[in-house]
Amino acid sequence: LLRRCPAFSSSSAAASPSSPCRGIAAPRALGLAQGEREHRHRHRHRHHLPESLSLAGASSALLRRKLAERSATASIPFSSSSSVVAMAADPTATTNSTSDVLLQYVVLRRDLWQPKKAAEGEPEPWAWPLGAVVAQGCHASTAALWLSRDDASTQSYCSDSNLDHMHKAVLEVKSEAQLRNLSAKLDAAGIKHKLWIEQPENYATCLATAPLPKSVVYPILKKFNLCKSKIG
Q1: pLDDT tens sequence across 37-65
Q2: Residues 6+ apart with CB under 8 A from 116
Q3: In angstroms, rounded to a whole number, what is the distance separating the alpha carbons of residues 217 and 193?
Q4: Any residues with CB less than 8 A from the CB of 115 and at least 6 apart, and which?
Q5: What is the distance between the alpha carbons of residues 159 and 139, in angstroms, rounded to a whole number?
Q6: Terminal C-alpha separation, the chain
């Protein structure tokens, strides 16, 4: 109708007095423009998009991508047990609002899976597989929990309300001698822990502390690095 009306142009919103479209073209043109603006407003509000993305000049591909990103972000649930991510960035970081969270430290020997190179003429030392290293940490952690089972901190750590929110920090030492020295320092400080001695080899492979407030144990362990080494 607007294209057929000779009196209507893009520079004027009204028809000429002599036009047969008078009273028809202008109201309809204004109504179409207003309806388009309302449609755009509703579209922006429904998808919470910035105004710049809802303009007619914005590409449909960009709109689809932004909507997909928002939907993906909204579908990711928040987990309060993401302590591994937080501590990977900062050994002192925790997911709790307090820095004195109940924490169990596990200390592994790095030379189990990354042994030193053998001297010339000697056989290459055996590197432990991933499963065997994990088993050592499980042994020490379980034993430390059992040895401290009557402590209030361990009971709180293993309570039903905390089972899905446990915090552990896995550290590494370079050798068995360093691991045994650490165990002696913990003994001197009165901190319960379990030094796991693998049998029948009879050498120390791992150490785990009882769950304690971080402020109690961290001063002794702060010089050790988080275990970030690759196995294999």
Answers
A1: 555 555 444 444 444 434 344 445 555 56
A2: 125
A3: 11
A4: 124, 125, 126, 127
A5: 20
A6: 75
